[in-house]
Amino acid sequence: MKNAVKKIEAYVGALQDGRSMNDVQIVEVDPCSEPPSFTTHFPEWEEEVAQRWLEPDAFTAAQMKINAEREAYYAEKKAQGTDDNFNDPSLAKHSLDALKKGTPEGVNPRRKEYYLSDDDFQATLGMDATAWEGLKEWKRKQLKKNVGLF
Question: Which regions in the chain score pLDDT beneath 50?
Answer without folding.
Answer: none
